[in-house]
TrEMBL record:
It comes from the Bacteria. GO terms for molecular function: 5-deoxy-D-glucuronate isomerase activity; glucuronate isomerase activity. Involved in the isomerization of 5-deoxy-glucuronate (5DG) to 5-dehydro-2-deoxy-D-gluconate (DKG or 2-deoxy-5-keto-D-gluconate). The gene is iolB. It is an enzyme of class 5 (isomerase). Pfam families: KduI. PANTHER family: 5-DEOXY-GLUCURONATE ISOMERASE. This is 5-deoxy-glucuronate isomerase. Keywords: Isomerase. It catalyses: 5-deoxy-D-glucuronate = 5-dehydro-2-deoxy-D-gluconate. One of its GO terms (biological process) is inositol catabolic process.
Amino acid sequence: MSHLLRKPENNKLADGVTLVHEVTEKNSNLHYVGFKVVDLEPNSSYNEMLTNLELCVVALTGKITVTDGYQSFSDIGTRESVFERKPTDSVYVSHNKKITITANTKARVALCFAPSDKELPTKLIKAADNGVEHRGKYNNKRQVHNILPDSDPSANSLLVVEVFTETANWSSYPPHKHDQDNLPNESFLEESYYHEMDPPQGFVFQRVYTEDRSLDETMAVENANVVLVPKGYHPVGVPDGYASYYLNVMAGPERIWKFHNEKDHEWIIDRD
Ligand SMILES: O=C[C@H](O)[C@@H](O)[C@H](O)CC(=O)O
């Protein structure tokens, strides 16, 4: 199995609290992006102590209450399934804070981390404030919810976005990369993908590869898998009959999403 592909760990932390995924600098080849998925039964709580990291808590499914010890955001979350295809609520918390997430209903929560030494206000990012985009044409169409885009100054280095790709379409396509700290031409952003499929027995293909092919991994990605993108192009193809969801976390030295399309495939964008 590719070293970039993570299957659910489903590590039971306490009654009603399961750590589905944990991606850190210690257990991955990522140095900027950190990521966790936590399942909570009703009335169960999960605590996280932030030191030099900022965090975006995304209510993937179900309803949760999030507090940073000073502010509390109650009963947030908008959907029972990500495939309701509507934005959800999130909470941004900057470094040096302890956060507690309590489930009001059965919930799956994504914790998106990036480095920060900047004190910034804790903030509810309401579903209604997500920028929704419909990108692409032909079989390259996808729906994008911008949760923490680089146009939103709320965070220090974190970018969070979720993407819906319908049956037999491609996304993160034409292949693009952002692995060079070379602004204004390209930014360096590591990236993680948390994938879900509908129906859940489905899979997608994702390839992660560099210009020189020194890295070239093609994966069959299944429901609730995580793919790590330390560098390189990273397109996703969705088989006929299935719909794809993924949540992206990006972070790097500059909080700017400036990607470079692979020249061989850039014509895809120029079709009439
Ligand atoms: O770099 C960002 C990720 O590849 C996705 O968020 C991608 O941009 C989604 C898309 O437009 O297909």
